[in-house]
Each structure stands twice: as C-alpha cells, then as structure tokens.
Amino acid sequence: MTNKEKKRKQADPEAVRRKVETLIENFEAELRSGDLRSKVLALVPVFNELRRLGKALIPGEYASAASDRILYYFRQYPRTIINGDELLVVSGIQDYPRRVRELRVQSGWAIASGVTVKQMREDESEEIPAELENMKPNEYVLLGTEQDRDAAHRWNMANTIRKQPGSVRDKILKFLQANIGRGVTHEELRYVAGNKTEWARRVRELRTEFGWPIATKTTGRQDLGVGVYVLQANRQSPEHDRHIPDDVRSEVLRRNGYRCQECKWSHDEWNPSDPRHLELHHVKHHAKGGENAKENLMTLCTVCHDKLHRIAKQ
Ligand SMILES: [Zn+2]
Ligand SMILES: [Zn+2]
Question: Which ligand is closest in space to the CA of residue 276?
C-alpha cells in the first residue's frame, strides 16, 4: 500500500461529510466561538479528498445560504487573505467563486481576488498595494467592512451603457458622469469597456488629455479605496492645465499636502453646498511655454483656481 492510498483510507468520506455538515449546521455558533478558521483550515485537506472522490459535498438544503456563510466568514476575518479552499468548506458548494463575484459586484462588498488583482496589473491601472501584490488566483481578501449599497444599481447601469454604440472612451465618460462624486470600481469600468483592457488607458486619457477630474487613491484622493475611481465634478480643467503626466500630478499633490496653496482647502472639508475639488495650475501658463514639470505646478482648489484666472484676464 502506498502512502497516498493509506491516507485515502484514513479519510473516511462519510466521517468528513458529517464533520462538514455539523460545522455548517452550527455555523453561527461556530462563528461566535472564535476559532472558526482553525476548524475550517483543518477540514480543507480532507474536504478536497472528498471532492476528488466525487462525493456530494453537502445536502442541497444548505446550498441556498452558501453566500451568507461566505460573507460571514469574510467579515469575521477582514483584511486577511483567505484561500478558496476555505470558502469551499464554508459554502459547501463548488461554484463558490460565482457567489464571491455576486457579493462583490451586486452586493457591493469590497472583495479582491488574485484574479482581479492580476487584471488590475495587466490593465496597468492604479498602483496595487504591496500586501495584495503576490496574491494567487485562488485567494481572496475583504478590503473594507462597509457595504456599497449602490453597487447593484451601478452594475445595471454599466450593463446598459456598454451595449450602447460609441467608443470605449465615450462609454467610460458616460458612466462616470452618471456617478459624479461617487466612487465606481475598476471592475465596473472594465465591464463598461466590454472587458477590453484598454479601459485603464482611456481613463488616463480622460484625465490628462481631456482634463476630467477623475481621482483615485494615488492621483489626488487618499481617502479612496484600492481600485476606486471618482469623477469629482462635471467640469474639465482649463485647456492650459492639461497634459500633466500622472506621476507628476501625484508628486505635486503629495508635495502640497493635498491642499489648495491659496486657501488651504483639502478634500476633508468637502460638503455638498460647497462642492470643490483640487486641480493643478501652471505657474507659468502652459500656453505661454510653461512646462509640465513639478516645479511649474501648484495645487489649487477649483474656487481659488477660477478666481486666479479671472484676475489674470482683467
Ligand atoms: Zn483654494
Ligand atoms: Zn490654471
């Protein structure tokens, strides 16, 4: 008898299934007891064996609440990298990845997966935090504990816009304009673009060449989550203040402490009755030969920026 065969004999499929059933049956009590994860991790290897033998994982009646258990599990261990095998045990169903995706795009839970992180890298979207950099395709993490309740509505809107005629850039702008001041996710932008990887390049063009104030965590709004984009207002920056490369923009904002250099306004003070945002201004106007270099740029809020240009015109 080989070692492998011995192992297989020891893992009595019926006993394993009973263990999993007990865990799932008493899921909420287990959740409260605090050592749920160690129990789940202990079941992973035998559970995989059970699956290999083609046994039914859990009785059908438990499958309906599979998404709830996956969500409970994530919320119990936020910002912790969870292996897909754990979710297999917790949910008891093979197609748990689909449930995770639904939790993300329809219920608005900020769950990143190794696959979405890989997509972000391929699409050259914004910076990926170091702790997510090495995630494997079968790993997941709940990044924040707050639910984005508009997610389902936005997903439907994205689906409508993607089917309309027009260029990828037009569709992305339309989607952002339908959500002014509110965060949308990289996954939604990708979806609007018909899953074409060019979406991230189009977003950058809208920001740099067309002057739309589309902010992310690294380009102006530190308060935003990873992979979240916001069109801050329905206005384009003045022609002469465009074409600033993103790395220069990030550096100037950082240097100026994310504050208007005239009135010291920062986004923390934002309120609906005074909706401003930060723009970059060329000290020596771009049109008059002023460079797009960080030395020639300063951060201004839109109110001070407008005022400065009005004075300059007089
Ligand atoms: Zn200001
Ligand atoms: Zn200006």
Answer: 1
Question: What are 128-171's pLDDT values in tens digits?
Answer: 777 788 899 999 999 888 888 888 899 999 999 999 999 999 99
Identify whether 266 is part of a domain: yes
- For the entire predicted model, the pTM comes to 0.77
Indicate if 138 and 20 belong to the same structural domain: yes
In a domain, 289, yes or no: yes
Instruction: Determine the distance separating the centroid of ligand 1 and the alpha carbon of 219, expressed in angstroms.
Output: 18
Task: Using the mean position of ligand 2's atoms as its centre, give its distance from the Cα of residue 54 in Å.
Answer: 66
C-alpha of 191 from chain center: 13
SS3 259: strand
Cα of 247 from ligand 1 centre, angstroms: 23
Q: Determine the distance separating the centroid of ligand 1 and the alpha carbon of 284, expressed in angstroms.
A: 18
Domain stop point among 142, 165, 191: 142
Q: Higher pLDDT residue, 222 or 156?
A: 156
Q: CA 146 to CA 78: how far, in whole Å?
A: 11
* Ligand number, closest to the Cα atom of 244: 2
Q: What range defines the domain where residue 264 resides?
A: 237-314
Ligand 2: distance of its center to the CA of 240 in Å? 7
User: Is there a contact between 192 and 156 (Cβ–Cβ < 8 Å)?
Assistant: no
Query: 282 C-alpha vs ligand 2 centroid, how far in Å?
Result: 5
Cα 283 to averaged position of ligand 1 atoms, centre (Å): 15
Contact 263/246 with Cβ under 8 angstroms? no
Q: Which helix (H) or strand (E) holds 212?
A: none
Return the percentage of the chain with pLDDT > 70, whole number. Answer: 89
Ligand 1: distance of its center to the CA of 306 in Å? 9
Is residue 1 assigned to a domain?
no
Residue at which a domain ends, from 142, 172, 187 = 142
In a domain, 229, yes or no: no
- Ligand closest to 303 (CA) is 1
What single-letter DSSP state applies at residue 236? P
Token pair of 181, please?
A: 């001041």
The domain tally of the chain equals 2
Tell which phi-psi region holds residue 258, choosing left (phi > 0), alpha (psi between -120 and 50) or beta: left
